[in-house]
Design a protein that fits this description.
Length: 242
């Protein structure tokens, strides 16, 4: 596999500890000279995802000295106010359902807008120009702040408001979950796929007691459904081309 062009500047990856952000971290490590990670504690029910980050970072660099040399510090920012403001199934003990506005009640209003704004502020202090996030509008839960138009508009706003030249990267924007598994394989082979499968966390309920062939989770929430169906399609495609 040809090596991608490495950009001579640093990147900050929005790194929750989930499948998408873990794939984005591997993607960034192959492209930027210096990569730092950022997670947010905002009162999410699945805060266990944050504890998965160390194992993912360690696993990604264990057999790749080049990646180890590029991986910089991990940061965690508290956004408790977001959890206090949000009356959602991700920040309250509530059943997951479709809201009257047509959006899943797991949608946390303003979450990605705040995440990227705080990321840009941290990136300014850290001397990082590139921001990398796992937003996707191909195989997702319908969140409006995951749309490509939203990210492009926010990039313009951040650059105007901070008088900077940030570049926002969303390498998963047009990939479904099966293609995201495939991208992980392309980036790091079976070892990376297995690492993400076992160590990342996507379940909205924070369940790491039930183990499936696609990883840990309740198996019934929307995040588990997306992850498991994507895994099934990825495995079927792999078998068909074996």
């Amino acid at each position: 596999m040809p090596e991608p062009d490495t950009q001579p500047s640093g990147a900050l990856v929005l790194f929750s500890g989930g499948q998408d952000s873990a794939t984005c971290l591997a993607w960034a490590l192959d492209r930027f000279e210096r990569v730092e990670t950022l997670g947010f504690a905002y009162g999410q029910r699945h805060a266990i995802e944050l504890s998965c980050r160390d194992a993912l970072r360690t696993g990604m660099t264990a057999t790749r000295p080049d990646r180890a040399a590029r991986l910089g510090p991990d940061h965690t920012l508290s956004l408790d106010a977001l959890g206090q403001l949000s009356d959602t199934a991700l920040t309250r003990d509530a059943a997951i359902a479709l809201g009257t506005n047509g959006l899943p009640n797991t949608f946390v209003p303003g979450r990605n807008l705040l995440f990227l704004t705080f990321a840009a502020a941290l990136a300014t202090r850290r001397g990082l120009r590139h921001l990398v996030g796992g937003m996707c509008e191909t195989d997702y839960s319908g969140y409006p702040d995951c749309r490509d138009d939203t990210i492009k508009a926010l990039q313009v706003a951040l650059n105007l408001g901070m008088d900077s030249r940030f570049v926002l990267h969303t390498p998963l924007m047009w990939l479904d979950k099966a293609q995201t598994w495939r991208l992980a394989e392309t980036l790091g082979g079976k070892a990376l796929v297995d690492l993400i499968r076992e160590q990342s966390h996507s379940c909205y309920l924070g369940d790491r007691t039930h183990h499936h062939d696609w990883g840990y989770g309740c198996g019934t929430c929307p995040a588990c459904d997306l992850r498991s169906s994507g895994w099934a399609r990825y495995r079927a495609d792999t078998a068909a081309h074996a």
